């Protein structure tokens, strides 16, 4: 990190001013519309939260409003699977950037059904397969894990999104069946897809999301209750892959301009990990061409720049 992060005298005021600034940006981006349930989200909502490793949460705007976390959920699934499978996980999913859109299928055939990383859909489906194969009730286990991390029982799945994802899931089904043909999916494909769509449909607020990922800023230990969530080595590994592959095809630019491990989702959420400091969670539904929240990107970029949070 570029020295110690600057401590603003009032972090909540800074968050509010960055949020106000993001709201004034020229109207850009488009709400995800591949399923009706996401297309119906009010587009001008905006929230920002920072949880620091002393357990405090600062926020601005709609930081208590629950939104569809979508691909941010791939972090939770990965950590669960790393805890269950150990190093054998990396024989079935690699840790390289893909250079392809998140739902691309072409690379998967060239590379014999082994996905490039756990944050593209194919990789997240392999992770989901591991969880479905391990747990008798994998969906309940996923929700329990997320609630444990966020320190609240008040986290639910949006059923409209969940059912809509299932109805429009042909591309993910194609990825899963292709991988099964290579022997890289063990469970039945409909069960793997069901788990994946359920996990994508979890709703969380910026405040909950920031708290839930604090363990990644604190070497695998949840700083609020001192619970060990994963090993120090695995926290490092998750942050490393987030840095190279967490922001879709904009991961290089995000590392260049922001310099933090981060994950976005097509619901408009972005979570950025600041090692030894905390977690930033931003949400606003309108997405840029890469699938990243326009206003969320702006707020995180400004905050990281002003406080000197880059890890590089
Ligand atoms: O897999 C899908 O189609 C959606 N649930 C998209 C999730 C997402 O945010 C994009 N993934 N990398």
UniProtKB/TrEMBL annotation:
Annotated positions binding substrate: 71, 121, 165, 172, 196, 248, 266
InterPro entries the record matches: Beta-lactam/transpept-like, Glutaminase
Keyword Disulfide bond: no
GO biological process: one example: L-glutamine catabolic process
Superkingdom per UniProt: Bacteria
Family designation: Belongs to the glutaminase family.
PANTHER family xref list: GLUTAMINASE
Protein name: Glutaminase
Organism expressing this protein natively: Arsukibacterium ikkense
Taxonomic lineage from the root: Bacteria, Pseudomonadati, Pseudomonadota, Gammaproteobacteria, Chromatiales
Gene: glsA
């Amino acid at each position: 990190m570029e020295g110690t992060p600057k401590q603003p005298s009032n972090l909540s005021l800074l968050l509010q001013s960055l949020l106000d600034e993001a709201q004034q940006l020229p109207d850009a981006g488009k709400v995800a519309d591949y399923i009706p349930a996401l297309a119906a989200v009010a587009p001008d909502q905006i929230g920002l939260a920072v949880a620091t490793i002393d357990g405090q949460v600062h926020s601005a705007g709609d930081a208590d409003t629950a939104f569809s976390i979508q691909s941010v959920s791939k972090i939770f699934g990965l950590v669960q699977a790393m805890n269950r499978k150990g190093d054998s996980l990396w024989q079935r999913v690699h840790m390289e950037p893909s250079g392809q859109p998140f739902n691309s299928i072409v690379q998967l055939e060239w590379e014999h059904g082994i996905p490039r990383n756990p944050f593209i859909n194919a990789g997240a489906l392999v992770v989901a397969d591991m969880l479905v194969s391990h747990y008798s009730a994998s969906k309940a286990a996923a929700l329990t894990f997320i609630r444990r991390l966020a320190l609240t029982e008040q986290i639910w799945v949006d059923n409209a999104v969940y059912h809509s994802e299932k109805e429009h899931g042909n591309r993910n089904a194609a990825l899963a069946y292709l991988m099964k043909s290579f022997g890289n999916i063990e469970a039945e494909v409909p069960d793997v897809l069901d788990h994946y769509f359920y996990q994508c449909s979890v709703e969380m607020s910026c405040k909950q999301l920031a708290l839930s990922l604090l363990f990644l800023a604190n070497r695998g230990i949840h700083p609020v209750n001192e619970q060990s969530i994963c090993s120090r080595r695995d926290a490092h590994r998750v942050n490393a892959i987030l840095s190279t592959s967490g922001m879709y095809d904009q991961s290089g630019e995000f590392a260049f301009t922001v310099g933090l491990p981060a994950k976005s989702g097509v619901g408009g959420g972005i979570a950025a990990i600041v090692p030894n400091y905390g977690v930033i969670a931003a949400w606003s539904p309108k997405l840029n061409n890469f699938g990243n929240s326009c206003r969320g990107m702006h707020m995180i970029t400004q905050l990281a720049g002003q406080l000197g949070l880059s890890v590089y």
